[in-house]
Amino acid sequence: MESFSLTLLIFFPLVGILVLLLLPNENRNTLRWTALIASLVAFGISLWVLTLFKSSNPNLQLVEKYNWITVAGWNIQYHLGIDGLSVLLVLLTTLLTPISILSTWTAVEERVKEYMIFFLLLEIGMNGVFLAQDLFLFYIFWEFTLVPMYFIIGIWGGPRRIYAALKFFLYTMAGSILMLLAILWLGVNGGTFSLPDLIQQGGIPANVQWLLFIAFAAAFAIKVPMWPLHSWLPDAHVEAPTAGSVILAGVLLKLGTYGFVRFNLPLFPEATLQAAPWIALLATIGIIYGAAVSYAQADIKKLVAYSSVSHLGFVMLGLFALNPEGISGAILQMINHGVSTGALFLLVGMIYEQTHTREFKVYGGLWKITPVYGTIMLIVVLSSMGLPGLNGFVGEFTILLGAWGAGQSGVFYWGNVWFAAISALGVIMAAIYMLYLFQKMFLGPQGDVVEETKKHGHAIRDLNWREIVTMIPLLLLIFWIGLYPAPFFNLMAPAVNHLVGMLPLP
Questions:
Q1: pTM check: above 0.85
Q2: What residue spans of 53-194 are helical by DSSP H?
């Protein structure tokens, strides 16, 4: 059974999809429970995979490798594997999927069967991206994730959902075409599409490395999204349904950052070293720009969306510090962002269901009306702004430590330590816009939306049991990572050290 554990992890949601297809459309609660149970079983399988995973081993584990397409000399394999670079992201995916499905219990009332099918298909694609070790197989999963998210935004999204869905699809598809050309070059010239084999072969000329690096980076930078390729993100977040925003921020954006660490760094080490200061510069700009634009927003979802540009700028800064501290902090910050920003989108969706507005300035005084909601929101806000003792601080501090070390070691040879110093301002700016959001929504006199809601026959209520249960796993992770991050660092440390050892550092 262990030899097929990763295949089972990826494709188990298909069982849920088959059951959903057999159920009548009218049985909405049955459809919801079926999708939730299927996603919970997938989460259980990921925990089982974690028990099989040996954190001391830096290499790929639980490898599944079979010949798939061998026509005309093409050596394409069904090749799966997991290591310290991907194990936490797989766990994040399988955790956020059932949480997202649970959040839709009353939010999605139309075409429930199709919605749940698309969500389970999306989980298959995301796990496939994190576990595929053949470039051709990776590309199939990478492109496959676009389809269910396109429909989730386009069918169940807001008033401008078609525009947002098309923009999301076209942006990400444009970058993917360049990556496909690079994949074909590597496969034809290397005689294999196996990522470990291509890394072991090495020997790609420096000028070719630059072109291939840019081709892969275009696809990944759009997905992150890095400044200035971020303009699709606010539209997608604002128009997506709540659960779609949770998965988009929590997992789909991480496909881009994961792509850099899985492909660009080990495949193109010389190009990576030359590109590091440029990537660091763009990441630093993104950190400050995202934070500044977040403060200017009146829509809560747009504020959280632009904050993702800033937070993921930290991730990119850490990855291209090219040292164990920076890369470990970046991977942990991917998890932190998925937890904290996913929680923010869930909380926004919970209040939106009642008030049907996301203009946070019309709220005010919610603390007295919804103390449980306010307490949870405060914890998540403090987490997102990087308060010591909560998860956000650990990742950002480790990234800044790595960036500072990169400046001193010469990786950021014309940036010195200024990238770290300027990026640290992003932490302060995050505190400004997050506390501003909280103050406007929860403190001061009651806003107009409270009275408007009463006029429609119901007062704003506090969180119910289902909504509290939805938030509990994320709250536990916020405190666990913030107070005791060692188990998370231990899972990734050998693989990260192995990766850094491949790079021709000064």
A1: yes
A2: 87-103, 112-131, 135-144, 146-156, 161-190
